[in-house]
Write a structure and sequence with these properties.
Elements: E1 2-7, H1 16-29, E2 36-41, H2 56-74, E3 78-86, E4 89-90, H3 92-99, E5 108-116, H4 121-133, E6 136-138, E7 143-146, E8 151-152, E9 156-157, H5 163-182
Parallel strand pairs: 1-2, 1-3, 3-5, 5-6, 5-7
Antiparallel strand pairs: 3-4, 8-9
């Protein structure tokens, strides 16, 4: 079973990088038998804005980026989406990236990790609606990091120990649902 941990921010110097590494390390330290975890940075894919007019010099590179994104996401059995919360929603880059997908992620499971003033809770509400439309089942348990209590000066990631219990439950649910949904694909 292959789980993609998707780091959903493209901002330079973002907090997603540290959060994503923590999630990857936590996942690997679980030693889940038969499970492979891979970290994917959305910033590694130069996806154009969906539907935007591209000049000829950009079109070929954009097509390659879209294809690479699609193939990467199709290669996973389940996902952990890590998203910041901007303006009470997930970031625009993540929304745009999800809009390029559909059959690649159908009938798969996803877990949600967020960070923001309320731990990304409102971003989770937003992304659940999008993923449901794409036939992705999101597990109930989430991991939420507060910019106020889990980051020093809102930029240095120092997660509180209680986050480990949420992450453990989240991964337990994700692996169960991923196995179950694999039977219908």
């Amino acid at each position: 079973m292959k789980i993609g941990i998707i780091s959903g921010s493209v901002r330079e110097g973002n907090n997603a990088t540290a959060v994503s590494q923590w999630v990857l390390d936590f996942a690997k330290n679980r030693n889940d038998e038969g499970v492979e975890y891979e970290l994917v940075h959305l910033s590694d894919f130069d996806l154009p804005l969906l539907g935007a007019k591209l000049d000829a010099s950009r079109a070929e590179a954009a097509g390659s980026a879209i294809k690479a994104w699609s193939e990467k996401m199709a290669s996973f059995d389940g996902y952990v989406f890590i998203t910041p919360e901007y303006n009470h929603a997930l970031g625009g880059a993540m929304k745009n990236a999800l809009d390029y997908l559909n059959p690649e992620i159908n009938n798969k499971a996803a877990a949600l990790v967020g960070y923001g003033s309320l731990g990304g809770a409102r971003a989770h509400e937003n992304i659940r609606v999008i993923l449901a439309e794409q036939r992705v089942a999101t597990v109930r348990t989430t991991t939420n990091f507060s910019l106020i209590t889990d980051f020093e000066n809102m930029s240095v990631f120092k997660p509180a120990a209680h986050n480990e219990a949420n992450a453990a439950g989240m991964f337990d649910d994700l692996l169960l649902w991923t196995k179950a949904l694999n039977t219908i694909r």
